[in-house]
């Protein structure tokens, strides 16, 4: 390397770098297109597979558990100091978790450039669509688990309110 070689102008370096970034992004765009096409096919298949009978059965079970949760809620608000209990046990923890998440996202966003933020935004949109599809595909399993868990929780609350320890 010659110590006296002319230095390449910044504009030339920037142009080269921009070209490399655009080339990389175009390859990613082709990959994203294939992912989106696969997503659309998977979504169409899942919608066809989810029959009205399955939906109605889950809806009926959800309504039954929802009635039990409503009874548990009414029993809970009948207790003196219920607002303090909910505020102390739930609200404080949710606020702390939300503050940590916002702080982390702010730090992460500040470390990225405009192309990275745009890429991440598009990736986030695709991830959100995938999450929606995945939730459709596993809805029956999740609904069953919710029904069992919340039905038991409602029964436990009602039992504890009748016979406090």
Topology:
Blueprint: H1 10-49, H2 52-77, H3 82-110, H4 114-137, H5 139-162
Helix pairs in contact: 1-4, 2-5
Report on this structure.
By secondary structure, this protein is an all-alpha fold. The protein has a domain at 54-112 and 144-165. 87% of the residues lie in helices and 0% in strands. It contains 5 helices and no strands. It has helices at 10-49, 52-77, 82-110, 114-137, 139-162. Helix 2 runs parallel beside helix 5 (139-162). The longest helix has 40 residues, at 10-49. It starts with 9 loop residues before the first helix and ends with a helix. The model has no long low-confidence stretch (mean pLDDT 81).
Brief rundown of the structure:
With 165 residues, this protein is mostly helical.
